[in-house]
Amino acid sequence: MVSADSDRGAGHVATRLLSLILLLQSRSAWKAGELCLELGVSERTVHRYMGMLEEMGIPIYSERGPYGGFSLLRGYRLPPLVFTAEEATVLYMGANLVREVWGRTYGGAVTAVTAKLDNVLPDELRQEVAAARQNLVVSGLHALDYRPWEPTIHLLRQCMRDRRCVRMRYRGAGRDETERIVEPYALAFQWGVWYLVGHCRLRGEMRTFRVERIREAAALAEGYSIPRDFDVRAYLRGSMEYERPLTVRVRVDAAAAPRVRAHHGNWMELSDESDGSLMARFSVATLDWAEGWALSLGPAARVLEPPELAARVRAAAEGILRCYGDA
Fold first, then answer.
1. What span, in angstroms and rounded, lies between the C-alpha atoms of 292 and 244?
2. Neighbours of 284 (CB within 10 A)
3. pLDDT in tens, 121-156
4. Which residues contact 86 (CB under 8 A, 6 or more apart)?
5. Which region, left, alpha or beta, applies to residue 11 given φ > 0 means left and ψ of -120 to 50 means alpha?
6. Strand-strand pairing, 60-63 and 69-72
7. Distance between CA 98 and CA 189 in Å, rounded?
8. What is the C-alpha to C-alpha distance for residues 199 and 224, in angstroms, rounded to an integer?
9. What count of Cα atoms within 13 Å lies in the side-chain half-sphere of residue 72?
10. CA–CA separation, 53 vs 122, rounded Å?
11. Cβ(304)–Cβ(294) below 8 Å
12. pLDDT digits over 260-303, tens only?
């Protein structure tokens, strides 16, 4: 005898709903007992599934009596939005990831997508997805807070869509500002930083620009075209190598070594020293994060290179000392 509760478990309900629709499509009518055998559930569960399909707007017809049964509207085919719990969770998580990375630019679209999913999914499946979403969280991707630059990112995205050039005032690494006309090819999010990839007419070549260094941007009426053989991913693989030119070496004392190994050992080059300390070596595009990381370890970390990072950490420590000097 099949238990009415035998269909419980993440994804089982949605999988059986999908199977039920496919069965109903396969012939004109099914008796409840036949569906019980095909799905491996009780008759009570079959009736519950039918109610869930009706909630989703699927045209189910039922007729009572010895010659009755269930059938679909003639000519009906499986709708495009029928998901398992895992598939629905992927869609929700993907939408939240887009919100985290793009912010307000795609905020309205994310809200609309999740609202449509909420409307399509039956209550029981929504509960399964909600439970999964409580255990799977995407957040804290931004190394920088890009909310002040969201209007700029939005403008760049529109210009890429319409193939319109951008006039922008850009601050270089040396703090000098130049006005440029750029043909925007792509926006890339790497290492917590937004980059604009495009052809710079001032330099006459492809360039990569950090979005937070764009002081002003305006769309131009002038259009452009992207070379047919241009591959933005291949370009980034080659061009971004220079974006991590700084090599950092930090000695971490024995007491803090386990914490560093546990939290950062997957991307740092770590080597054990004879006294129990740890040598950490890694490459960065800028010293901002490295400075904060070294300061977070306090006296347990000593920066060995580059000299400018050691100077920045020393200056920050002296500032902290001055702040608390009276105490």
1. 17
2. 19
3. 777 777 877 777 777 666 655 556 777 888 999 899
4. 10, 11, 132
5. left
6. antiparallel
7. 11
8. 10
9. 17
10. 8
11. no
12. 888 765 668 889 999 999 999 988 877 888 899 999 999 999 99
